[in-house]
Amino acid sequence: MKAAVFKERGQPLAIEELADPTPGPGQVVVQVGRCGICGSDLHVTHEPANLAPAGKVLGHEYAGEVIAIGAGVERVKTGDNVAVMPLSSCGECANCLGGEPAWCAQRVIDGGGYAEYSLTHERQCIKLPASLSMQDGALVEPMAVGLHAVAQSGLGPGDKVLVYGAGPIGLATIFWLKRMGAGQIAVTARTTQRKELALNMGADLFVEPTDDPPAAAIEAMGGPADIVFECVGASGLLQQSILSVRMRGTVVLAGLCFHADSIVPAAMVVREARIQPAAFYSLREFEHATEPLDQGAVEPAMMVTDTVALTDMPPVFEALRERTTQCKVMVKP
Known about the structure:
It is a single chain. This protein is of the alpha/beta class. The chain has 11 helices and 17 strands. The strands form 4 sheets. Strands 3, 4, 5, 8, 9, 16 and 17 form a 7-stranded mixed β-sheet that branches. A 6-stranded parallel β-sheet has the order 12-11-10-13-14-15, with helices on both faces. The radius of gyration is 20 Å and the shape is globular. The termini are close together.
């Protein structure tokens, strides 16, 4: 099979011929239909402290068709279209049995979607409703991340919310905030490039970029937010988020910042602000992410700005390291 393989830092992914996978007990082989390019893959192929191992096939936002099953597989069969939850775990501990594989002591983040075929475990597969396309299936993972962030926030009906970032996770968060009863939803970003997309996803207002985002957001919203979502993962945004939230409000960290950052602790203390990280999702949240798509929601698909062939992917992947007009790029093996 063809696959895009990570070789070393500073080098583009390499298209190579690898052996086709064979399923063992409890495993399935998925013919990849679509795989989204995630910003975290850009990080792990560049950040020295979090570098992916050489020879790794990345790609964790994917869907496809089950084409082979191993012994004991019962939940899926060949011919099923599935989205793959990229959390490999033991399957036996309390977290796994409770549908929370993200917190298994043996958890590993699986990739495999940047290839024609991927090997995974049946418990990581959820069957896609017949109404969903492969593109829809590949959107399930980032949509589940946004859903979990909102669930972690303690959102109450009518809460005033500010979202930092209009990338796929920020946009997915906006989508769920609108559906789950938020009041005013504001979003701000470093550029206005995705302003219309953010508004289409459910935001009520877009705060234009300034030198003082917290002050601009508070003025535009008529006061500080009840909940602030940091969905970028850039240094400095945690402090900005704290300065944007009301007394005893909540800041949700959904962005992945791989660099040392600093805050002024007093800014958090005098507000008694709650800092709530949000990572991954539960099995139920992953399954639930398919439901709006099955019901006809069109907003998530608006994030997809390009689809490229696997063999054309490496230069596109490298180009995404710089600010571009792209939002979510899909790979079609």
